[in-house]
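writing this on my phone so excuse typos. first protein, seq and then structure
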Amino acid sequence: MSNIVLHFSKNDLSKVKDYYEKYITKVPPNSLFLAKINNVTVTAYKSGKVMFQGDHAQQEAKKWNAPKTENSSTNRSKASVNEHDYQPPESLFTHAHIGTDEAGTGDYFGPITVSAVYVPEEKIAMLKAMGITDSKTLTDENIARLAKEIVRENIPYTLLTLDNTKYNKLQKKGWNQGKMKAMLHQHAIQKLLTKIDCIPIHGILIDQFCQPPSFLKHIGQEGLKLEKNTFFMTKAESYSTSVAAASIIARAKFVKEMDRMSNQYGFPIPKGASNKVDEAAAYFIKKNGIEALSQVAKMHFANTDKALRYVKR
């Protein structure tokens, strides 16, 4: 079965809807319509994407002259990938695979969250059409909505959260953030493999945050081994729907935790590591004490010393 996704302008999308009007069978959530014609399912989204699924999807899609087409033969620009032996094959992106990504690593406040997501081949085009892309390009509201959509579609995933108390203990123990992330990614992968059991996959793609030899060293120190057919790639969320979905689930959890902390402590706790964060940390220390800060922040960040200087003023 073929999956083709075309992109239309707002005006052209209206023409598409008019053409398929009498073939519309329902309107799924977050879509414009779903129509069935010539053994092809046509699903249109308000974003301008229209997905054609079925044995004759190619022929049906050819009726339209859209500015951009996505399918297995799409020419992609090469990703910015470090040269190593763990680069993914181009075919991975159009086949069932696991992708992993994390959130919260550059933020002073809040935990680190890591997700691993398995996307079967038949759902890749659908998730793309829904707008599953790098979470960094999405608003918090859209991230929360898309995360719910991923869950609603019964996409298998795992989600791990390293809270700040545990993070600071590991850091004092000598673990750097790279090792923490490597262990979280590897555990998320192993838990997901157990969850999907014997479902065949074409590989595992980790959104690369360190050189593969460093990743291998980190997990090896704790008695873990890299799973077969594991690949690393920078900016992987721009190529892999599985990684993009993982980035959304991880980010949604991070944002939820930040909101929870803000509600718990009675003021909006900012994301990132800017001067605004320094001021917020200083306010937190004055209100709750330095010991309590270790429960909500990554204490080894330079923001801690800056916040203490604010407090002494």
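second protein below, same order as before
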Amino acid sequence: MTTTTAPADGAVAPRQHTPVRRPSLLRLTLVELRKLVDTRAGRWLLITIGLVTAVIVILQLIYANDADQTFVNFFTPSLLPVGVLLPVLGILSITSEWSQRTALTTYALVPRRERVVVAKLNAVMLTAVASVLTSLVVAAAGTLVASAIGGAGTWQLDGSLLLNAVILQVTGVLMGAAFGLLLLNPPLAIVGYLLLPTLWGVLGEMVKPLRGPSEWLDTSKTMEPLFSSDAVTGEQWGRMVVSLLVWMVLPLAAGLYRTLRREVS
């Protein structure tokens, strides 16, 4: 029979320490998704993305020819304006920790900063996929209305075009997140993301020696085949990969290094 002795008067009983489990990557991703909606800028940006998608379909119902009121024609035009707004969401997701001075709390709770960064990237990629689904739903609604009012209302959609749409939006939001990681300042990152690739594209058109490299590094050209229903060729995929290495992978790697090294105050 085992007996336990009570602690003597004035003695402090030893505390039992339960091990603290670190939050899973799934939980961190869900937290980052919630942050996108909790901030005023992120919430209104998401609302704007939905409204832009709906407005494009409404304008086509009003002004497009009946023969052009098809599912694919409702779906494809919404990709470009939404693709412009999504990178801004990626930038805000990354830079909000520093602009709102919550980095100290976040990295105190999750000391391994790379896990927070990966969760943020997961969150914005899921948002990009959700934007494609939103475009599909709104395009379907537009097609139903078109068929009811005498438009073509055809439902044909090539599976490759759907895959291209996901690639386009996911890479776009990751490019924005990469600039956010690199610059860690919302206005500077937004201006840099919008200005630098555009400036390179303009120089590629104006300066003759840069026209060749521009075909491989100008994302407005390399990503253009994703909007087409035609199959993307091997050379076009190669140009896409090279341009994304320059405008997405390199800033992402440099930004991650800077984020891991930056002092939090």
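The chain has a mean pLDDT of 87. thats all i got for now
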